[in-house]
Design brief:
heterodimer; A: about 325 residues; 7 strands; B: about 110 residues; Helix Hairpins; TATA box binding Protein, subunit D, domain 2; 2 domains; 2 helices; transcription regulation (chain B); TFIIA_gsu_N (chain B); Transcription initiation factor IIA subunit 2 (chain B)
Chain lengths: ~325, ~110
């Protein structure tokens, strides 16, 4: 398409000249200075060249202008980069300091299940999400295989869960549930991920629940965002097992359906094949703007007869007098 | 008057951006900008009809969607190859917007 490129450049120059000459009269009618018209032309050409859709102009005056533009662009792009890196260094420095800072011990009530003391760190001020690393130390439990020494698991808990009485109590309830204690007996990495997920889900559902509660003017809404059926069912099932055995099968089936649906949602959404072109050059939407002579279809085979078109493919411009194409739907 | 179709091209968009900047600085009026665009439409249509002589063919892997509304065809194709005699270029997804080549474009009252 190199020959096409030269053609495109020439065509564009021709169009620019035509337009500028054509509107000169209109500009003068409005009483607008010729200088503005020239500025229009200059800016138009500059934008065209910086868009890289066509080859740059060989005019010496314009190339010197172009190189100056490039230098100023490079200077301005390095400046923001310099500003952002010091900020990042500052935020990373603050977080380890916060972790080492004073700790507020939180006591847990259940010695029977063997859950441990949690050590909370002060929240870093800069991050907006405000997760706090919480260390859970599990003391050695007799009778649990492979668990002879105390191990510490670090999970990230949103800061608001550690503050305030109700939220803090909530955290303890989450941590003392049977599923969690089962997880504590797993190896450290698995325990960390399981606990983290559990905490995230539980906190999200309660946050949503409390939010929906306040929106309803006193009437509690337990479904919709406040629904806790999916992940908390693991916990509730354990309770149900003790109470009614018959309902277990129903609950398991419903849970299986819920879990399948939860799995199917992500599975089905993977059926959508969306092409994400990571390369910056391909950021453009490849568009063809043209006129059609004839569009035909036979079963699912389409034939296109197009004319007078401009294409922008992968960032570059092409033109055609006629184009014929085939596609299958 | 001519199709405003070609305003969404590199040339058309850069022109519109430039005009918008000039309007912002108060150097031209919006009516004048509109006149420039109308002139651009006319010039573009004429140039494409007379100055461009090349033909090309293309083949698409798949036609994802087609739409025909107000006599305008819009196609979304994927995995397309454009061939101009000896040269080739490829696109992963291509959108084609095509106005009727035979109709008289609607006249605009400015």
């Amino acid at each position: 398409m190199a020959a096409n490129q030269a053609l495109v450049s020439k065509l564009y120059r021709g169009v620019i000249e035509d337009v500028i000459n054509g509107v000169r009269e209109a500009f003068l009618d409005e009483g607008i200075d010729e200088a503005v018209l020239l500025e229009l032309k200059q800016n138009w050409e500059n934008k065209l060249q910086s868009s890289k859709a066509i080859d740059p102009v060989t005019d010496p005056a314009e190339t010197s202008l172009q190189s100056k533009l490039q230098q100023s662009q490079q200077a301005s792009s390095t400046a923001p980069a310099n500003n952002s890196t010091p900020q990042q260094a500052a935020t990373t420095a603050k977080q380890p300091e916060a972790a080492a800072a004073a700790q507020t011990p939180v006591t847990t009530p259940n010695a029977a299940t063997g859950a441990a003391t949690t050590a909370a760190a002060a929240a870093p001020a800069t991050t907006t999400v405000r997760t706090v690393p919480v260390q859970i130390t599990v003391p050695p439990q007799a009778g649990v295989a492979g668990h002879t020494a105390a191990k510490s698991i670090t999970v990230h808990v949103p800061a608001h869960a550690l503050q305030g009485g109700a939220a803090g109590a909530q955290l303890q309830t989450i941590l003392s549930s049977p599923a969690v204690t089962a997880a504590l007996s797993l190896p450290v990495e698995m325990a960390t991920t399981v606990l983290q997920q559990h905490i995230n889900n539980a906190l999200q559902s309660t946050a949503a629940r409390s939010q929906s509660r306040t929106d309803n003017g006193g009437v509690t809404q337990l479904d919709g965002p406040g629904d806790s059926s999916d992940d908390d069912d693991d916990v509730e099932d354990d309770d149900d097992d003790d109470v009614e055995e018959e309902d277990d099968h129903d609950d398991e089936e419903i849970d299986a359906d819920n879990e399948e649906n939860a799995d199917e949602e992500p599975l089905n959404s993977e059926d959508d094949v969306t092409d994400d072109d990571p390369s910056v050059l391909f950021e453009t939407d490849n568009v063809v703007v043209c006129q059609y002579d004839k569009i035909t279809r036979s079963r699912n085979r389409w034939k296109f007869h197009l004319k007078d078109g401009i294409m922008n493919i992968n960032g570059r411009d092409y033109v055609f007098q006629k184009a014929n194409g085939d596609a299958e739907w | 008057m001519a199709y405003q179709l070609y305003r969404n091209t590199t040339l058309g968009n850069t022109l519109q951006e430039t005009l918008d900047e000039l309007i912002q600085f108060g150097q031209i009026t919006p009516q004048l900008a509109l006149k420039v665009l109308v002139h651009f439409d006319r010039t573009m249509n004429n140039s494409l009809a007379q100055k461009v002589k090349n033909r090309l063919t293309f083949k698409a892997g798949k036609l994802n969607t087609y739409r025909f509304c107000d006599n305008v065809w819009t196609f979304l194709l994927s995995d397309v190859e454009f061939r101009d005699v000896s040269e080739l270029c490829k696109g992963e997804t291509v959108k084609i917007v095509a106005c009727d080549g035979k109709a008289v474009p609607p006249t605009k009252d400015d």
